[in-house]
Amino acid sequence: LSEPQREAVELAYYQGLSHTEIAERLNQPLGTVKTRVRSAMQRLRDVLQPYYFEPSR
Amino acid sequence: MSDVQELRDLAPAYVLGALDPAEARDFEAALAGSPELQREVASYREVAALLALRDSAAPPAGLRERLLERVRQERSAEPTSRAPIVPLDARRQPRWLVVAPWVGLAASLAVAAGLGLQVRRLERSVGALDSTLAANQARLAARERTLNTILAPGVQLVPLTTSGEQPPGIQLFWDRQRNTAVLHAFRLEPAPEGHAYQLWLIRNGQPVPSQVFNSDPDGHALVEGITIPTEPGIEAYAVTQEPAGGSSQPTLPILLFGRVPTS
Q1: Which terminus of chain A is less hemmed in, N or C, by CB atoms within 10 Å?
Q2: Cross-chain Cβ contact B100/A55 below 8 Å
Q3: Which tens digits make up the pLDDT trace of B157-213?
Q4: How far is CA B140 from CA A14, A16, B74, B131, in A?
């Protein structure tokens, strides 16, 4: 994950912030924050999926 | 239709609880009638579950401060009425419970306070929360360390696999810069009484003993802070079953094996 992606996920997950709150905290456009959260989670899913998910999925 | 794609794009944030209230409402309305969205959400919950590492979610930073601020506001408002106590459970929102139960609790407390609940009762809640917070601090710190290792740049994921239907698996997150690793096992039955699993590094064809561990009854194991030797030549990782104290030479057969990907 890139540093901005990781930061966005940490703020959402560990601090329970919403998109809007993260955007305010980081002083970044809302759209940028949304993209970062989405890309980060997609990346994590892509990396983990082959190993972690049940074969039926 | 772009609408469907837009909703799919919201799924990761929904699972993290990061959608704004209006977005969350729209998403939930669509979710109820869409098996595709439900699958999408389920897959991201698996990712979130790994972030949570099967532990109960720790309270978000700042929750205590927000509660205390609420107490101060209530105190200055000098409440006089004795409103009925609203059971915290009654106001829980299932969405929050999945990722961050504490957010639901905070929301419940905020609602209770809004109804004029007595300051003292709220203070007791804060007191109870304090002890829970203390209990969770260490776990939170440990989880952040783990997350740092898993997500750090340059971390290499080495999957250890075996054959069979529904086989057990291990993910080894190897931080090659810091020479540490985090091991996450799944579908791995606990070793029988008096036994444990042992991780081996295969270096230049020779097994080097590493961490001894066991899995929980649910088949998961999480081992943090594994020190990996700095010497080059680690080609693969393997796991065997050994006596509880571990061994200096592996007892065959090798149960799980993963070659280090060459990049």
Answers
A1: C
A2: no
A3: 788 888 877 788 888 888 888 888 888 888 899 999 999 999 999 999 899 999 999
A4: 9, 14, 30, 14
Alpha helix (H) residue ranges in B152-199: none
CA dihedral angle for residue B72, residue B75, residue B76, residue B77, rounded to 10 degrees:
120
Residues of chain B with pLDDT under 50: 1-2, 53-58, 78-105, 107, 109-118
Residue with tokens 């030479």: B249
3-class state of residue B190 by DSSP = coil
Q: What is the pLDDT of residues A13-42, one digit of tens each?
A: 777 788 999 999 999 999 999 999 999 888
Provide, as residue numbers in chain A, all residues whose Cβ is less than 8 Å from the Cβ of B48. Answer: 13
Q: From the centroid of its chain, how far is CA B25? A: 25
The pLDDT, as a whole number, for residue B151 is 66
Record: contact A48-B46, CB cut-off 8 A: yes
Instruction: Record the tokens describing residue B97, joined without a space.
Output: 């419970």
Task: Tell me the shortest Cα–Cα distance from A48 to chain B, in angstroms.
Answer: 7
Cα angle B34, B37, B38 (rounded to 5 degrees) comes to 85
Cβ–Cβ below 8 Å for A9 and B186: no
Q: What is the ipTM of this complex?
A: 0.81
pLDDT at B191: 94
Instruction: Choose from A1, A3, A48 for mutation: most chain B CBs within 10 A.
Output: A48
pLDDT at residue A56, as a whole number = 35
Distance from CA of A13 to the nearest CA of B (A): 6
Q: B23 to chain A: which residues are within 8 Å by CB?
A: 19
